[in-house]
Amino acid sequence: MALLLLSGAADASAQEFGTLRGRVAEDVLNQPGGRSAPDDAGDRGGIRVPEYRPLGTGTAPDGEAAGRDGIAFDPLEMNTGEDGENAARPNAGSDGTTASDGRISSVPGRVGSVGSIPSVQGGGGQPESDPYAPVGTRIGSFILRSTLDLGLSSSRETTTFASGTPPVAAESTSISVLGDGALRLDLDSDWSRHALNVDALGRLQRDISDDGDRKIEPEVLLDAVARIDVREGTTVTATAGYAYRLDDAQSAAFYAATDPALVPAVSGTNDPPTQTLDGSLSLRQDFRSLFGEAGVSVERTLHGAAELSDGSSISQNDLDNTVYDGRLRAGFELSPVFSPFVEVGYGIRRMDERPDSGGMDRNAVRYAARAGTGIDLGEKLNGEVAIGYLREDVADPLLEDIDGIALDALVNWSPRRETDVTLRLATTTETSSVGGESGALLYSGDLAVTHRIRANLSAEASLGADFRDVRGGADETTVAGQTGLTYWFNRFAGLTTRLRHEETYSSDPLERSTTTSAFVGLRLQH
Question: How many CB atoms lie within 10 A of CB 265?
Answer without folding.
Answer: 8
